[in-house]
Amino acid sequence: MAETVDLNALIRLIPPARTLKNDLEASLHMELYTGIGDIAVKSYNNLHASVSRFIDDPYVKSLVLEVPEEASDKEKVLLARLASSQLVACLESQTGLVGHGEGSGGNSYYTAPVFNGSISDISNETLERIMGFVKKPTTEEKETEQEESAEA
Questions:
Q1: CA nearest to 101, candidates 111, 88, 113, 114
Q2: pLDDT bucket at 104, cuts 50 / 70 / 90
Q3: Which residues are CB-neighbours of 86 under 8 A, at least 6 positions away?
Q4: What is the DSSP letter of 103?
Q5: Which of 14, 108, 115, 128 is paired with 142 by a 20 to 30 Å CA distance?
Q6: Which of 43, 40, 4, 8 is nearest to 24 (CA)?
Q7: C-alpha distance across the termini of the chain, in Å
């Protein structure tokens, strides 16, 4: 006889699992993991316990978080991130709601390069390369632009 799974309960666990995964991913990306290692592990363990009540599967059992005592906050967050990602995938496959609510399929982060200096710290060669990205308008383009503004 096939095992009955509480589909509604599993569906309700997807948002917190996905949020945990995304929050841990963001904290790693932005290097804001100091001091949150223990709470990341605790949050994951509680979520895993909730999922384990509804899914009796060897793979879910294998996702128990075993954190070495000497693990740093970063290592704890990395472990919780990896495990939560797998837990999300497991929940999605059990419910058939694969990737729903993720938008384009995941998070993307853009960070601009940080320059902590002054313009005088940049070599002439670097400045010339940077300025090479700026296109100087041709005489023809200048004339066209002037004509367009005169017509307006």
A1: 88
A2: very low
A3: 63
A4: T
A5: 128
A6: 40
A7: 78
Structure tokens at 87: 């837990």
Q: What is the pLDDT of residues 3-21, one digit of tens each?
A: 566 888 999 999 999 999 9
Cβ(47)–Cβ(16) below 8 Å: yes
What's the half-sphere exposure (Cβ side, CA atoms, 13 Å) at 63?
27
Concatenating the DSSP letter of every residue in 31-95 gives T--TT-HHHHHHHHHHHHHHHHHH---HHHHHT-----TT--HHHHHHHHHHHHHHHHHHHHHHH
Q: Is pTM, for the whole model, over 0.70?
A: no
Specify the higher pLDDT residue, 124 or 49. Answer: 49
Cβ atoms within 10 Å of 80's Cβ, excluding its own: 31
How far is residue 32's CA from residue 124's CA, in Å, rounded to a whole number?
A: 36
- Quick one: tokens of 29? 């990306």
Burial readout 54-63 (b: 16 or more C-beta within 10 A, e: otherwise):
bbeeeebeeb
**Among the listed residues 58, 71, 22, 59, the one whose alpha carbon sits nearest the alpha carbon of residue 43:** 22
